[in-house]
Write a structure and sequence with these properties.
Elements (H helix, E strand, L loop, with lengths): L11 H12 L25 E6 L3 E3 L5 E3 L2 E10 L2 E6 L5 E2 L4 E2 L3 H4 L1 H18 L7 H6 L1 H9 L7 E11 L1 E4 L2 E6 L9 E9 H14 L16 E6 L11 H6 L2 E4 L6 H10 L5 H7 L8 H31 L8 H6 L35
Antiparallel strand pairs: 1-8, 1-12, 2-3, 4-5, 4-8, 6-7, 8-11, 9-10, 12-13
Helix pairs in contact: 3-5, 3-10
């Protein structure tokens, strides 16, 4: 039994604070989203709504059109212990000062992820007495494929967008939020700048389509290319059969609604000025998912992420080697185990080519497992 800790000399206020915090525990550790609390990242409200303003920071794109200033980048979803986190992809990026040479260790690691998928898929299929190339595998192993894809240590890179928004405290009536901004005792709006991140696909499906049909308070058309200088309601509410709601389903049910706000032009100017330094460079510095890493730093992250997968692969290969050869002698490596029965390790993937599932194993579209964004 553990030794009893030493008594703690705490004040009544400290004990009350601890008691309150323990009552609020969820049993889950929160994954940090920012390296600088002065630049917080927007959290999805569970089955809720938020009133926001998008600061009017625009730049000229390659086509000569004005577009919202944002950090657009590709990122991998990776499994860090039991948490799914996002890591910026460096494929195709070159910068001598950071030793970036257009390669990405996480892109290369996709080969390891698929190799483990194949080995575990074959192992589970065997335990169920289903041949992976048989007609029964399509339905009989459908859930297995989905589960293995969901658990992949590294997933293919996807395009993301990050830009600042202002999130407002809103008034309440009869215990319900009324989407009208609250003011403090001095009459100032209570709004907080935050980073907002979304997959580019989600932005096109939810934000861009809203802009196509929205009109300004005077009835004129809005600029369809960007949401800068406009107000929106982010609606994450949805119906649940069992009455329970979670962040993942809330994110999937996001509806972006344009909200005309008359008489707030001075506040818009104020928040534009307040967020003028919320640039893509600042996002790369402060947001965990956006942070820019050198080649060595990226490799260090990759090695840590992939290590458990490599260990599983080695164990599965040695187990297979022992099964086929009948040998009880330990092998010095997974490669040695494979060589003992004539197997050849898979070829390494190149950073310019996305790894593919080997012939014979069906590929299922990756599930959206991100909890904080769409």
């Amino acid at each position: 039994m553990f030794k009893k800790p030493e008594p703690k000399a705490l004040t009544a206020e400290q004990l009350e604070s601890l008691t309150t915090q323990y009552q609020q525990q969820t049993g889950k550790s929160a994954v940090p989203k920012t390296y600088d609390p002065s630049y917080p990242v927007f959290e999805i409200p569970v089955n809720g709504k938020e009133l926001i303003y998008v600061p009017n920071h625009v730049v000229m794109d390659a086509m000569g059109e004005l577009t919202l200033r944002k950090d657009k980048f590709f990122a991998h979803q990776v499994l860090d212990r039991k948490s799914r986190v996002t890591v910026r992809c460096n494929s195709g990026v070159e910068l001598e000062e950071l030793n970036l040479d257009k390669s990405c260790p996480l892109c290369d690691a996709m080969q390891t992820a698929w190799e483990l998928y194949n080995l575990e898929y074959a192992e589970i299929a065997k335990s169920k007495s289903i041949a992976i190339d048989s007609p029964e595998a399509k339905d009989g192993l459908s859930q297995v494929r989905k589960d293995l894809l969901s658990d992949m240590v590294v997933k293919p890179a996807e395009a993301w967008l990050t830009f600042p928004i202002i999130v407002f405290e809103c008034m309440e009536k009869d215990g319900n939020k009324v989407l009208s901004p609250k003011r403090d005792k001095d009459g100032r709006l209570i709004g907080k700048p935050m980073w907002y991140s979304i997959r580019e696909k989600g932005f096109i499906e939810r934000w861009a389509k809203t802009l196509e049909t929205a009109t300004s308070p005077d009835g004129s058309e809005l600029p369809p290319t960007h949401p800068g200088g406009l107000w929106f309601i982010l609606n994450y509410t949805y119906e649940s059969k069992d009455g329970k709601h979670d962040k993942m389903q809330s994110a999937k049910n996001l509806a972006v609604n344009y909200k005309p706000m008359v008489g707030y032009s001075e506040w818009e100017t104020y928040y534009d000025e307040l967020t003028k330094d919320w640039t893509p460079a600042k996002a790369m510095e402060t947001v965990c998912a956006n942070v820019l890493r050198s080649k060595e730093e990226q490799q260090e992250v990759c090695d840590e992420i992939v290590k458990p997968a490599l260990e599983k692969i080695a164990m599965l290969k040695m187990s297979k080697a022992k099964e086929l050869t009948g040998s009880t002698e330990p092998q010095t490596s997974a490669e040695a185990a494979l060589a003992s029965f004539g197997a050849v390790p898979q070829a390494q993937a190149t950073p310019d080519a996305a790894p593919q599932v080997p012939t014979g194993l069906p590929q299922v579209p990756l599930a959206d497992t991100n909890l904080g964004v769409n």
